[in-house]
Amino acid sequence: MNAPWKSGMAGNRDPFMAFVCDDLTLDVVRSVCEEMGWPPEKGGKGGLRNAIQSLSVSASPQILLVDLSESGDPIHDINSLAEVCEPGTVVIAMGQVNDVRLYRDLLLSGLQDYLLKPISPDALRDAISHAQMTLNAPKHDDGAKAHQHVSVAVIGSRGGVGASTIATSLAWLLSDRMGHLTGFLDLDVHFGTGALALDLEPGRGLTDAIDNPSRIDGLFIERAMIKANEKLSILSAEAAISSPIMTDGAAFFQLQEEFRAAFEHTVIDLPRSMVIAYPHLLNDVNVAIVVCELTLASARDTIRILAWLKANASHCQTLVVANKVSTSALEISRKDFEGSIERKIDLMLPSDAKVTAQAAKLGKPVVEAARSSKLASGIASIAEQLKNAAPEPSQSDAKADAKAAKKASMLDGFKTLLVKKPKSPAA
What CATH number does the domain containing 232 carry? Predict the structure, then answer.
């Protein structure tokens, strides 16, 4: 990174300028400037007020770093900066206030990022890298046809029925066999097996999202998710069992929004406890697959889950899949089970301990480790049904698209809303 970085943008605007309030931060900024091949003088003192005065009479840089430490009303001052800043400028702010509400408000005002002081060289390099990616990103074609998105939630009526095995296999089939861009969201934060089943390390992506929901965006998704194959990305966790989930569910809602924009299919391994705690998780789900066993306890819980789905997610297509079905020694017959739940079972999957054990040893989904097995064929038939599960365009879709467009416009901020207004420096 010794050669100066050059954007593809036209014009003679400076690639970078910084206005900071203290000498320690100034030293960090100037050292990073030298690494990037930029004149260290592009980092100066004065903070946000000096930035407004300087940019009111000079051209804005492509990337602008401003210090809010001396600002009594950061949101008002950022809006004042917007009046003198040219369109296309990516703005990064820094400050001493560690408040998620301020962070959200600043992003909605059009900022690219907000860094907490004291900043490290690594944090600053990362923020600049994100800004460069934003500047070089291809512009969206508003006339392009939006892809249809299908969201599938796999819910086990009880622990151990094999819901995670089926969810992992479905995600693999949709991506590897059918060629759909697929996101796999494993919401069993403490004991999820989605990554484990594919011989992957889960990473910290999901726990970071839960801890900092305001940071979830397309770039976060791209960086936090783990690639399982060319078209399958996984977001999961292996959180410490001493750390309970402390969230109002905003992170999960935001993740679903980003998955909807990024993928053609989303497969969610959704523990039943999460359904109870965060019922809004089913709001955008098109298909709910309830996995059960032919046992008395599973029949009871399947009845309760189906009743909940009917009352709270009536828009979902619901499939009931009986897993681990043995040819003998059934606790409840299929006929009696269906009579109890008052509907037909959509699919019966055979019990095959040998196949599931082999898949676990290989670190592959069942449908990949034993393609010719009856179990794999059964799961594949579910994936075939999901191909035709795309929702018809509706008013709700139009509202969702409008919401996404509004969000994109807000996050673009300085790209779309700022208009150059020449004015004399503020007194």
Answer: 3.40.50.300
